[in-house]
Amino acid sequence: MRISFVGTGIMASSMIRCILEKNLVDSKNILGSAPRITDLLELKERYSVNVTQNNIEAAQFGDIVVISTKPQAFSEVASEIREYLKETQIILSIMAGVDIETLQTALLHKKIARAMPNTPVQIGKGMTVWTTTRELNIEEKEEIKQILSSLGKEFYVKEESYVDMATALSGTGPAYAFLFLESLINAGVHLGFSRKDSTELVYETVLGSVLFAMNSRKHTAELRDMVTSPGGTTTDALYELEKGGFRTVLEKAVHSAFKKTLYLKELNKREEGGK
Q1: What does pLDDT average to over the chain?
Q2: Are strands 3-6 and 112-116 parallel, antiparallel or unpaired?
Q3: Nearest of 107, 109, 99 to residue 161 by alpha carbon
Q4: Which of 92, 97, 102 has its CA nearest to residue 66?
């Protein structure tokens, strides 16, 4: 199996590292294309993969061609490479807001997999939601699954709409988590802890809580009750969170991200349709 990457940004380079660490393919069977030679040379030095500034060369190289450019650059890239794609190749898109219909129309290609990985793929702990067109057979889906499994956890969905939902939940989710961590750390500093100590306390508390929840069969509400004593400190803290609309604000944030995903998807459709 040969894999090429059209676009070698942070997400693509993280995928390359994970693929090599899991020994899915040899480095000689990976090729990445990007416009900046300095970025390519850095990628080559780090992972010993093939590099090129020619997107057409990348499109012709891979059995699986990963489209990892910025969504706003996709239309130009598609017009450049579509004539050089073979029917047997699989296109794997990790672009946000570009749906399968747009990919098929722009690339004149049927075998499409669309995936939404998130930032923790950079340490092999990502969560990727993905789907494919019906033209992929069982063996080809398994190849895509192996690639995405190397990034962390993968979750296959039959309906593409769930990939859009995942963009707002697991794709954007790390940002919500980082803001929560930042706020909790600042609260610790406000109480009198050093930032270093507060950071360690918060990171370990949140990590332990997540692992505990994952290993428990209890509903999160039950887990919360285990920490909450009647009339205790946790009761007062949770009251303030509820009074401030913590749940509602978070749900609204996720829904807002989902609406933006749908807007960008429709925008990309219109732009491609106008060409």
Answers
A1: 95
A2: unpaired
A3: 99
A4: 92
Q: Of 17, 184, 3, 167, which Cα lies nearest the Cα of 94?
A: 167
Q: CA 238 → CA 98, 227, 230, 253, distances in Å?
A: 39, 11, 12, 20
For residues 115 and 93, is the Cβ–Cβ distance under 8 A?
yes
Measured CA to CA, the distance from residue 18 to residue 125 in angstroms comes to: 10
Tokens found for residue 273? 């349709």
Q: Which candidate, 260, 254, 258, 256, places its Cα nearest to that of 176? A: 254
Q: What is the pLDDT of residues 142-151, one digit of tens each?
A: 999 999 999 9
State pTM to two decimals: 0.90
Q: Which long-range contacts (CB under 8 A, 24 or more apart) does 243-250 make?
A: 250/176
> CA 192, 181, 69 angle in degrees (round to 5)?
145
199-258: per-residue pLDDT in tens? 999 999 999 999 999 999 899 999 999 999 999 999 999 999 999 999 999 999 999 999
* Structural tokens at position 6: 């059209």
Distances (CA, A) of 254 to 5, 140, 227: 30, 32, 26
